[in-house]
Design brief:
Metal_Hydrolase; 13 helices; EC 3.5.2.7; globular; 8-stranded mixed sheet; 2 domains; Amidohydro-rel; Urease, subunit C, domain 1; 23% strand; 4-stranded parallel sheet; 17 strands; 34% helix; hydrolase; TIM Barrel
Length: 404
């Protein structure tokens, strides 16, 4: 018999920009069956009823940039290099549980030490382990000696790029990740220097396109961003050092920015001696203010923004993903637009806009029920004791309602 559940008298932020007061949402099986005013919808006989008075219901959130293989240690590169792949996988499963407990029902994992991320994805999909849906890239594609080589495959030339991209897709990749500039965590790389050529990046885009997949490009500096945009990527991860030309290109081509403000902020906030390598601290501190200005510029200019945290980087913990929304609001984004960046906009970026990201009939019932109003105080979404229920595919999987 199909399960039916009704959430009544709740405030509903539906992911389209609309707010319903005293609304009812009916879930039938794993799908949303109806949304409407409390007086307009009748609850089917036998349905489980959840009292939503004082609560806000919104779509399950989507984090477009995580690394479940990284554990937020001070020196994440050393940590992942020193532990066994099997231990990394076990830790990744624990981090997946922390993530869904925080109301993140889907993640895009854009760089793992190996292909075990796809085994974790399958285990979660089969209900063996709790966790969010995973759209994973597997290994990132980088130049020889380039950024992210500790979770990547090093390549040289278009032919190698095509071969490695096909290998990632064959292993189960739902997105291809390319490295278009140096980075913060990798020793000997400069964030403002471009890496990989336009033709190499375009080769990855072409292979992904043949499989109907998208390409995410790590890029801090403007030159790397421009190369990636001209190559046809779908998102710029970090977008730290924007200039006017890059903003124009992103708008022209409809390329998303995934700002990952939390990554630099949590690193730069640490003092020397905390365990973060000095070179990493220096790079993070040198870019944080510029990163904030770039985010504000992108938002004001109408660049599409999808939420991503880079969870797993130093002191940027899995399960604290919603801190990214607080940071975006503090830099001028409205609370509604911040929520949209983690729901409908994120769903479009990961290619699930017809399934997730909004509370509408026939959509997958991934929902988050919280105590309070995040439109008045976005920090409600960051407080574990405010999470009343996390629903994935029509079942409460976390929060007090999961125990009811």
């Amino acid at each position: 018999m199909t399960r039916v559940l009704a959430i009544r008298s709740a405030r509903v932020i539906d992911g389209t920009g609309r707010v319903w007061e005293n609304a009812t949402v009916i879930v039938r099986g794993d799908r949303i069956a109806a949304v409407g005013g409390q007086r307009d919808l009748s609850v089917p006989r036998g349905a489980r009823i959840v009292d939503g008075r004082g609560l806000t219901l919104l779509p399950g959130m989507i984090d477009c940039h995580v690394h479940l293989c990284l554990g937020s240690e001070a020196d994440v590169v050393a940590a992942v290099e020193q532990e066994s792949p099997s231990l990394t996988l076990l830790k990744a499963a624990h981090r997946a549980r922390q993530t869904i407990d925080a109301g993140i029902t889907t993640v895009r994992d854009v760089g793992s030490r190996d292909h075990s991320i796809f085994a974790l994805q399958r285990a979660i999909d089969a209900g063996i382990l709790p966790g969010p849906r995973i759209v994973g890239s597997g290994l990132a594609i980088c130049m020889i000696g380039g950024h992210a080589r500790f979770i990547g495959r090093e390549v040289e030339g278009e032919a190698q790029v095509r071969t490695v991209a096909r290998e990632q897709l064959a292993a189960g990749a739902g997105v291809i990740k390319v490295i278009a500039s140096g980075g913060v965590l990798t020793p000997g790389t400069s964030p403002d220097v471009a890496q990989m050529t336009v033709r190499e990046l375009a080769a990855a885009v072409a292979v992904a396109g043949e499989a109907g997949k998208k390409v995410a490009a790590h890029a801090h500096g403007a030159s790397g961003m421009k190369n990636a945009i001209r190559a046809g990527v779908h998102s710029i991860e970090h977008a730290t050092l924007l200039d006017d030309e890059t903003v124009g290109l992103m708008r022209e081509h409809g390329v998303f920015a995934v700002p990952t403000l939390s990554a630099l902020a949590t690193t730069a906030a640490c003092r020397r001696g905390c365990g973060i390598p000095d070179s990493v601290l220096e790079k993070a501190r040198g870019m944080t203010k510029r990163h904030q200005r770039s985010f504000a510029q992108a938002y004001r200019s109408g660049v599409r923004i999808a939420m991503g945290t880079d969870a797993g980087t130093p002191f940027n913990f899995h399960g604290e993903n919603a801190q990214e929304l607080e940071r975006m609001v503090a830099l001028g984004m409205t609370a509604m637009n911040a929520i949209l960046s983690a729901t409908a906009e994120a769903a479009e970026l990961v290619g699930l806009q017809n399934t997730l990201g909004t509370i509408q009939p026939k959509r997958q019932a991934d929902l988050l029920l919280v105590d309070g109003n995040p439109l008045k105080r976005i920090g409600v979404l960051c407080e574990p004791d405010r999470i009343v229920g996390v629903m994935k595919a029509g079942r409460f999987v976390s929060g007090p309602l999961a125990q009811a």
